[in-house]
Amino acid sequence: MARITLLGFGNVGQHLFYAFKKAGHQIIQVYNRTFLHVQPFVALFPKTRFVENLHSLSLDSDLYLIAVSDNAIQIISENLPTVNVGGVVAHTSGATSIKVLNTHPNYGVFYPLQTFTAGHEVDFSRIPICIDGDTESTIYRIEKIAQSLSKLVYRINDRQRSILHVAAVFANNFTNHLFAIAAEICRENKIPFDILKPLIAETIHKIQTQSPDLVQTGPAKRKDLNTIQTHLRLLEEQPEFRKIYQMLSDNIIQMHSSKSD
Amino acid sequence: MARITLLGFGNVGQHLFYAFKKAGHQIIQVYNRTFLHVQPFVALFPKTRFVENLHSLSLDSDLYLIAVSDNAIQIISENLPTVNVGGVVAHTSGATSIKVLNTHPNYGVFYPLQTFTAGHEVDFSRIPICIDGDTESTIYRIEKIAQSLSKLVYRINDRQRSILHVAAVFANNFTNHLFAIAAEICRENKIPFDILKPLIAETIHKIQTQSPDLVQTGPAKRKDLNTIQTHLRLLEEQPEFRKIYQMLSDNIIQMHSSKSD
Q: Does the beta-carbon distance from B171 to A192 stay under 8 Å?
């Protein structure tokens, strides 16, 4: 059981709060710059101190976890008082270098690779957690805590983590946006979006066991230029969707041509 | 129980063959232009005639279903002898107008909206089938057969079906391609692609109950231009992926800005 100070109580911070508690850890303190935001939690969790001033933190935790937006990590880190010798300062960001924390005696990364939505609980045991640390000993300590939450803990270095975040943007944010485009196209034409959900489910099902490039289908994969032209005409009134259609089709054709050459 | 003639025995044709048989229909005949391709099935299904010449078809089926690639539908239709008065000629294409079949006495569309992969069986009862026909009576006859295969049968007209196919390309082909890009980025950086699968599963899980645009996350949604710039730099050596990243980020920013204005 670790003693944890959570710095930041937004979407990710709150999900971690519950996950740590469930795993039996002690959340000693929660810092949030706006006290009003944590006010409702104060009475619910009497064993946790909620503070809005970094300088009023007690400094005897095993882990100080910075779970704030990327551009605020450095400021929090710089304003954090010198922590206890045994304490590890880590952040939860996929996009921020471990180096922004290198003013602390022990520092690392604790990056849960999942998309968190307020009010939508997720099962932490199946969330990959990517960890890193300044020394083998720090990595080991972060790893123990990560493994108490999840079975999927990966040691990922700074360079890998930043590129992994890019891959995650493609695999999650961008695919979700394509679903949004499909939903918009359906809505405008009075077609229920539900009609596409079995297709979406099957798309995902296939890549559980097969490499996505091997199960690619559709007009671009078939180099069916007639259908592509028809589709581009149908998208004439949505020039942005049309550009996206064109670019992704071109890239599919290119990727699959170079493979069969 | 309907008497069915299947015209085309590729990927979609074979999946339909098994689905019709399972639903208790009689597959009277299967046409395929290359007999060699159907040869292995002849001995397996003695009750079905396999033919490679359209003019040798017997013409007493309830449904003549054309399941060939889009650019071959018209040729099959034109070369099909005049069918029996009660017979309906239909195609299975999302991208082809019902009108290419209007030389037949009764004609329609039977479009299963799913991605079929050879050797990967799918549960037809949960595949949406979009149907259409030249008259209410034809639609009703196609609907009966469709409902014997699937619980999800939708009446969708020509215009809706063509735009639905565009939406399906976004929701399936393009998302799969984004998974392929993510996998490629992982591979190049020695990161297991499996690490992204829980994130992908959660992305899909969320849109089962919520509209995709409402659950959008990521740097573009947050208008986090620093992270976007970092990601574009990381993609410098993959100019095509970089262009796709830029365009999709721009479109997310634009779509979500116009909503909050």
A: no
Tens digits of residue pLDDT in A75-98: 999 999 877 777 999 999 988 999
Would you list the DSSP string of A57-115?
-----SEEEE-S-HHHHHHHHHHSPPPPTT-EEEE--SSS-GGGGTTSSSEEEEEE-S-
The amino acid present at B186, given as its one-letter code, is C
Better pLDDT: B228 or B117? B228
Query: For A104-125, what is the mean pLDDT?
Result: 87
Please say if the pLDDT value at position B10 is more than 70: yes
Higher pLDDT: B109 or A11? It is: B109
pLDDT at position A153 over 80: yes
Q: What residues contact residue B235 under an 8 Å CB cut-off, 6+ apart?
A: A166, B241, B242, B245
pLDDT at res. B186: 96
Residue of chain B with shortest Cα separation from A212? B180
Q: Decide: residue B246, CB within 10 A, 0-12 exposed, 13-18 middle, 19+ buried.
A: middle
Arithmetic mean of pLDDT, B49-74 = 94
Sheet holding A3-7, edge to edge: A49-51, A26-31, A3-7, A63-66, A88-91, A107-112, A129-133, A153-155
Largest separation between any pair of C-alpha atoms in chain B:
68
Residues of B in contact with A244 (CB under 8 A): 174, 247-248, 251
Report which DSSP code applies to A8.
Answer: -
- Smallest CA–CA distance, residue A152 to chain B, in Å, is 8
**Enclosing H/E stretch for B84:** none
Q: Give the helix, strand, coil percentages of chain B, each rounded to 5.
A: 55, 15, 35
Question: Do B244 and A248 count as a contact with CB atoms less than 8 A apart?
Answer: yes
Instruction: Pick A178's closest partner by Cβ from B95, B171, B231.
Output: B171
CB B152 within 8 A of CB B129: yes
Structure tokens at B16: 């339909």
Looking at CA atoms only, how far is residue A14 from chain B in angstroms?
17
Among chain B residues, CA nearest to A129: B195
Mean pLDDT of all residues in chain A? Answer: 93
Q: How far is Cα A144 from Cα B122, in angstroms, rounded to an integer?
A: 42
The pair of three-digit structure tokens given for residue B196, joined into one six-digit string: 């992204």
Collapsing DSSP to helix, strand or coil, B91 comes out as strand
- Is it the case that residue B261 has pLDDT exceeding 60? no
Chain B positions touching A128 (Cβ under 8 A) are 195, 198-199
Name A51's bridge partners.
A31
